[in-house]
C-alpha cells in the first residue's frame, strides 16, 4: 500500500484546496474562534489586506498565557503549602499596644524606605517636641516680630512612611521575615453590635518554631520602651462603640514623667509615700502578703484644697516606678458596676488606678442601706439618745429627697444603672477583684466620703495637701526661674526624690522692717526692692518697666535668685494661696523674675479682694 499517496489524499480537499497541518504555533481556527469571537473574519481581513497570518501570533500568545496561568496556580498552591507546613506566624491586632510599636519600628527599617507600596502618615510631632526636626526650622517659623507660626513649622516636618497593606519582606539578625498588613471587618461581640474595621499584622518566618518571631517582638517591645523610658502612659476605658468588649483600656496619651521635686508637698510626706509604695512593689512582697492571708492591694487617699498637687503627685509616683496610669471617671453615664468590675479585672500586674474627685462621683447607697440608716435614725429618736435639731432634720430630709429624685431621674429599672457605693467597694476589694495595683483616690472634701470607703484595708494611707507654705512658695519661685546651667544647690534623698533647699538659714525680718538675707561670708544683704538692693539706680524703659524687665532677668545667678525667692515668699502669707495659683501668676511672667517680685503685692491684694467679694455674694444668697 502506498502511504505517501494516502497522505497526499488526506491533505487534499474535495475542491482541490490545501489543508494546513496543526502545530503548537498555529492552532486551528475553531479553537481560536472559541477564545476570540469573530477571529475567522478578522484573520481573513488581515490576511487579505496585509498578507500576514495573524494566527501564529495569537496562538503563541494563548500558549504563553496558559503556561503563565498554570505556573502562577502551581506557585500559589506550593506557596500556601510551604507557608502551612514550613513557616510559622504570629498575629497582632490593632487593639494591642504592640501594634503601634511594630508599625513605628518597621517604618524606620530599610524595607520601608525602598518599598514601592508605602503609606504616608502626617507627623505633627508631639507637644513636647520632635527630635527629628531641625532646629533651623524653629527659627524659620518665627516672623520679623518674633511670632511663632505653627503651620509654617509643621510644614517643615516630613511625613512618616510605613508599609501599606500587603506582604513585605525584610531581614533582621540574619533571618528573613515577612510582614503582612491587612484589614478585616470587626466581628460584633456580645458587648457591642458595631462592626467597623480593624487592622491585623502577621509576622512570618521560615521554620516550624515561633521563637525567632517572639525574639523579634521582644526586641521591638524593648526598643519602644527605650524610646518612652522618660514618658508616663495614660489610659482610659475604651468606648463601647469600638466593639472590643467591656473592660478594655485605650492608650489616650503619654507625657514626660514628672520629677518628684516639682510636687509641692512636705518632703517627709513625699518620702513616706514613696517608701511605702516601693516596699509594696518589691518582688518579695506578694509572697509576704500571701503567706499571711492579706490581699495584695494598696490604697491611698490624697485630700486637700484644689490646686495643691494631688494629681501631680500621682503622676510623679508613676514616673518614679515606671507604671502606667489608668484613669476612671465614675461620673461616666454609661459606666455600670459590671463594667467597673471588668475594668479592674483587666488591669495589668502593676499599675496606678486613679479615681479623681471621688467626692463628686455621686455615689449612693442602695435602698436597703438607706432603709437601715432610716431605721437607725428612728430608733435613736425613740430612745432620745441623739436629739436632732430642726435644721439637721431638714437637711436629712433634703438629702433623702435628693437621693430619691436622682433615682427617679434614672427612671424605674434604670435606677440600678450607674455605680453605687457598694459596687465601687466590691470592685476595689471584692473577692474576685484584681491584686497588685496601686489605687489612688483624690478629693477636695474628705469629710463627704463614706467611712466604708476610706476604712483601713481600702485606704491604707491618707496624705493631706495644704495651701502653699513659705518654703513651698520659695521652691516654686526657684524652680520657675532656675537656669539649667546654674541650678541652685539641692540635696538628694532616696528613690530619686530631689528636695529643693529650704529657707531655714535665712534670718527673720529685723525690728526696723528691713529684711536681711545672710551671705556665704556671714554678712547680710538688704532686702531687694523692685529687684535691686536699696540705693541702686533704676532707669525706666520705654515700656514703663525698670531694667529688671530686660533680658538680664533670664541670667540671674543662683545667689541672687535665692534672695529674690526669699523676698517673693515673704510677700505671700502662708496657707492662703494654692501652689497652682502661685504657679499661674508666675507663668504670666515666666521669663521675668524681677517683674514677678515687683507685682506680687498687687496680685495678692487683688485675689484677696476678689475672694472677699465672692464670699459676700454667697452669704447674701
Automatic annotation (TrEMBL):
Q: Does the keyword Transmembrane apply?
A: yes
Carries keyword Mitochondrion?
yes
The similarity annotation says: Belongs to the AAA ATPase family. BCS1 subfamily.
GO CC terms of this entry? mitochondrial inner membrane
Q: How does it sit in the membrane?
A: Single-pass membrane protein
Q: So where does this one cross the membrane? A: 54-75
Alphabetically sorted, this entry's keywords are: ATP-binding, Hydrolase, Membrane, Mitochondrion, Mitochondrion inner membrane, Nucleotide-binding, Transmembrane, Transmembrane helix
Please note every region of biased composition (Basic and acidic residues).
369-383
Q: Which domain of life is it from?
A: Eukaryota
Segments of this protein annotated with the region Disordered: 237-265, 369-391, 500-537
**MF terms in GO:** ATP binding; ATP hydrolysis activity
Return the Polar residues bias intervals: 500-510
Catalytic activity reported: ATP + H2O = ADP + phosphate + H(+)
Cell location: Mitochondrion inner membrane
- Residues forming the AAA+ ATPase domain are 296-469
Q: What is its main location?
A: mitochondrion
Q: Where is the composition biased (Low complexity)?
A: 516-531
What this protein is called in its record is: P-loop containing nucleoside triphosphate hydrolase protein
Q: What InterPro entries does UniProt report for this protein, alphabetically?
A: AAA+_ATPase, AAA_lid_BCS1, ATPase_AAA_core, ATPase_AAA_CS, BCS1_N, Mitochondrial_chaperone_BCS1, P-loop_NTPase
| Sequence ranges assigned to domain BCS1 N-terminal in this UniProt record | 58-263
Amino acid at each position: 500500500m502506498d502511504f505517501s499517496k494516502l497522505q497526499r489524499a488526506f491533505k487534499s480537499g474535495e475542491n482541490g484546496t490545501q489543508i494546513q497541518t496543526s502545530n503548537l504555533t498555529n492552532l486551528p481556527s475553531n479553537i481560536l474562534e472559541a477564545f476570540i469571537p469573530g477571529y475567522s473574519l478578522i484573520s481573513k481581513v488581515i490576511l487579505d489586506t496585509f498578507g500576514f497570518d495573524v494566527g501564529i501570533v495569537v496562538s503563541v500568545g494563548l500558549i504563553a498565557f496558559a503556561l503563565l496561568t498554570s505556573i502562577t496556580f502551581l506557585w500559589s498552591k506550593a506557596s500556601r503549602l510551604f507557608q502551612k507546613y514550613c513557616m510559622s506566624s504570629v498575629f497582632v491586632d490593632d487593639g494591642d499596644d504592640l501594634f503601634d510599636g511594630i508599625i513605628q519600628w518597621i517604618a524606620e527599617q530599610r524595607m520601608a524606605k525602598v518599598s514601592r507600596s508605602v503609606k504616608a502618615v502626617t507627623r505633627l510631632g508631639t507637644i513636647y517636641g520632635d527630635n527629628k526636626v531641625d532646629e533651623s526650622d524653629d527659627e524659620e517659623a518665627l516672623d520679623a516680630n518674633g511670632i511663632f507660626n505653627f503651620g509654617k513649622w509643621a510644614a517643615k516636618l516630613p511625613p512618616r512612611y510605613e508599609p501599606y497593606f500587603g506582604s513585605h519582606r525584610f531581614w533582621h539578625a540574619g533571618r528573613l521575615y515577612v510582614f503582612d498588613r491587612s484589614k478585616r471587618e470587626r466581628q460584633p461581640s456580645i458587648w457591642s453590635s458595631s462592626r467597623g474595621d480593624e487592622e491585623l499584622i502577621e509576622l512570618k518566618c521560615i521554620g516550624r518554631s515561633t521563637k525567632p518571631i517572639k525574639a523579634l517582638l521582644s526586641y521591638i517591645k524593648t526598643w519602644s520602651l527605650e524610646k518612652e523610658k522618660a514618658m508616663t502612659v495614660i489610659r482610659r476605658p475604651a468606648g463601647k462603640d469600638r466593639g472590643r468588649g467591656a473592660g478594655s483600656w485605650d492608650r489616650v496619651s503619654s507625657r514626660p514623667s514628672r520629677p518628684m521635686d516639682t510636687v509641692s508637698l512636705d518632703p517627709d510626706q513625699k518620702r513616706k509615700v514613696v517608701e511605702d509604695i516601693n516596699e509594696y512593689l518589691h518582688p518579695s512582697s506578694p509572697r509576704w502578703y500571701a503567706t499571711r492571708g492579706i490581699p495584695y492591694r494598696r490604697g491611698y487617699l490624697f485630700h486637700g484644697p484644689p490646686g495643691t498637687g494631688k494629681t501631680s503627685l500621682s503622676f510623679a509616683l508613676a514616673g518614679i516606678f515606671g507604671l502606667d496610669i489608668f484613669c476612671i471617671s465614675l461620673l461616666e453615664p454609661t459606666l455600670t458596676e459590671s463594667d467597673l468590675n471588668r475594668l479592674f479585672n483587666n488591669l495589668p500586674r502593676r499599675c496606678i488606678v486613679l479615681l479623681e474627685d471621688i467626692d463628686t462621683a455621686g455615689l449612693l447607697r442602695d435602698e436597703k442601706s438607706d432603709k437601715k440608716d432610716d431605721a437607725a435614725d428612728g430608733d435613736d429618736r425613740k430612745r432620745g439618745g441623739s436629739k436632732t435639731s430642726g435644721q439637721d432634720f431638714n437637711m436629712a430630709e433634703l438629702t433623702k429627697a435628693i437621693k430619691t429624685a436622682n433615682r427617679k431621674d434614672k427612671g424605674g429599672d434604670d435606677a440600678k444603672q450607674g455605680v453605687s457605693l457598694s459596687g465601687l467597694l466590691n470592685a476595689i476589694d471584692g473577692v474576685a477583684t484584681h491584686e497588685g495595683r496601686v489605687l489612688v483616690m483624690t478629693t477636695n472634701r474628705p469629710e463627704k466620703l463614706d467611712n466604708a470607703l476610706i476604712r483601713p484595708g481600702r485606704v491604707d494611707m491618707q496624705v493631706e495637701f495644704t495651701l502653699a507654705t513659705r518654703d513651698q512658695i520659695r521652691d516654686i519661685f526657684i524652680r520657675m526661674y532656675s537656669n539649667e546651667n546654674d541650678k541652685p544647690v539641692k540635696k538628694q534623698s532616696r528613690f530619686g526624690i530631689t528636695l529643693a533647699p529650704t529657707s531655714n538659714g535665712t534670718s527673720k525680718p529685723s525690728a526696723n522692717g528691713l529684711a536681711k538675707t545672710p551671705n556665704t561670708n556671714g554678712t547680710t544683704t538688704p532686702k531687694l526692692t523692685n529687684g535691686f538692693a536699696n540705693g541702686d539706680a533704676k532707669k525706666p524703659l520705654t515700656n514703663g518697666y525698670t531694667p529688671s524687665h530686660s533680658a538680664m532677668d533670664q541670667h540671674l545667678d543662683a545667689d541672687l535668685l535665692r534672695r529674690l525667692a526669699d523676698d517673693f515668699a515673704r510677700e505671700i502669707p502662708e496657707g492662703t494661696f494654692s501652689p497652682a495659683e502661685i504657679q499661674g501668676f508666675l507663668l504670666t511672667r515666666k521669663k521675668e523674675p524681677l517683674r514677678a517680685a515687683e507685682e506680687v503685692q498687687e496680685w495678692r491684694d487683688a485675689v484677696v479682694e476678689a475672694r472677699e467679694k465672692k464670699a459676700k455674694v454667697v452669704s447674701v444668697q
